[in-house]
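Problem 12. The chain below contains 177 residues. Write out its predicted structure in token notation.
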Amino acid sequence: MEIILSKEIYLDVDDPTKPIQKKANVTYKGRVERNYTYMEYCDEEEICAGHPESSTTSAAFNNGIHEVQINTYVYNGKKDLKKKEYENKISNNYDKDFKAKILWTNSPIKFDVIRYMFHLDAAGNPKTWEAVPGRYQREFVQQCSADIDWNVTSSMKTGVRTSPGSGTPRKTRPGVL
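Solution.
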């Protein structure tokens, strides 16, 4: 789908559920002319299969004015939206807990809004959709989370106890650590 954005002109209305109403007059007058063809048959006394005849007819039609009511609903979004509050915390972050949960807010990502409006037919049904640029830029922010599981497969205490030479003092040469 190709999106074609037009010049950015915005109209603000107090109540977007109420249409802006205008009336327009459509005038009409004129003539119509049509060619036509028909089959002409002979009367009962003559024997014939009929033959085509062509002619033209014309007539004027009544002049008039047709009044049209135009309803336009306008909504260009809100300038300021209520920002959702997210948590920034760590749960179960103790030495005896083997599962921690971290919550944080991501860095906001700004993006342009494309609004889709649709045209209504006379019965109020959506007819065609059109992409139009949104008036206000928005930020995408979300709650991020991570679950951290950890366990001790072998402790330092066990590792020291089972290593060669454990429990014996280290021999060092003077000046060497």
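Discussion. The beta strands are 20-40, 51-72, 89-91, 99-105, 109-111, 114-120, 126-133, 138-140, 143-149. Students who got a different answer should revisit the alignment rule from Section 12.3.
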